[in-house]
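Board notes, transcribed. Complex of a protein with adenosine-5'-triphosphate.
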Amino acid sequence: MAVAMTRAHPAVAPAAPPALELVGVSKSFRGVGAVRDVSLTLPAGTILSLLGPSGCGKTTTLRIVAGFVAPDTGQVRIGSEDVTDLPPHLRHLGMVFQNYALFPHMTVFENVAFGLRMRNLGAAEIGPAVRAALRLVRMTGLEARYPRELSGGQQQRVALARAIVTRPRVLLLDEPFGALDRQLREEMQIELKQLQRTVGISFVFVTHDQEEALTISDRIAVMRSGVIEQVGTPDEVFEQPRSLFVASFFGTVNVFEGTVSGSDGSAILVAGPLGRWRVPARAPVSGACVVAVRAADVAVRRADRDEADDGDWLSIHGRVENIVYKGTTVLYQIRARDGSLVLAAGEPALRASVPVGAPVSAAWRAARTHVFPR
Ligand SMILES: Nc1ncnc2c1ncn2[C@@H]1O[C@H](COP(=O)(O)OP(=O)(O)OP(=O)(O)O)[C@@H](O)[C@H]1O
Ligand SMILES: [Mg+2]
């Protein structure tokens, strides 16, 4: 028997409005869609990354948010305010670009003070605010230097201080670490995340580097050809990619073609040239499909005879054709019986027992298999 329950509304604190919202935003240049029907929400106090290959529309999306590009359709909201028709300087946003863009003739102090002077603040307010911002980016003591006297990483710290000192409602960062070497880049990623937690400003961070997006973001929007393919936490987009494009964007994947031949509740059966596989059904798929397995999820071991799959694991048999040394890992290229090439990551030490030419089994957990419509 169904029981209708009535209860008093629980006392729920009203949720803070999102820091930023894009609703159905599109922009074409000469008839070519650079941004197509993009809707996004940036919860207050979080970092959202726009991640995608070159030309997918990341910068255009950011420029629409900033107000430098007017969208053809759609709405931009900051807080709960519709700012679509507002000029950039009235949106109260901060921006950091790849190429620092500091004023070369101004000292570090003056660069950071610039935005506050534009607001007609007095020296009594500017001094402490600039020093506090420089402390946050660990640049105390370098106030009197000029940009040419700073390293790239230091210049980018000044650019960050200059952007946060005015307390923008949202900070927009367009590949801010693109010009830095890998090690400095990784340090700056961690620092940026800590800085964001300290100041509490919401960030939109543009990058084409998947590791950077995974490190920095609370949520990632994966873009392709002007369209958002998937939005989710770093875990979600990495572990549960919704398309082959998203799966492939986060590292090397093996792709097998197959046909869905049936399903039994939580799993689907896929038949392909390398066997019949029972894999978890995350989304409904039928008919022709592709099966994607990350090379990093595939384990290689020597197998002088065939062994059957044991249910939790799926495998293919083949012969090692080549081993590519990558430092902390090696990439095995395995020629399967049907002629296809299967990639698997292993530890460098594995080469001693499983050399080129060895018969192997390459196995992965069924749960690490992704199936998409073909
Ligand atoms: N002002 C413009 N006029 C004409 N086409 C433009 C303009 N700005 C961008 N585009 C085009 O729009 C598409 C998206 O460009 P956008 O700069 O947003 O890409 P992106 O994702 O930032 O790429 P990258 O990673 O290389 O910076 C590209 O095809 C680009 O050539
Ligand atoms: Mg760009």
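Confidence is low (pLDDT under 50) at residues 1-8. The pocket of magnesium ion (ligand 2) is lined by residues 58-59 (CB under 6 Å).
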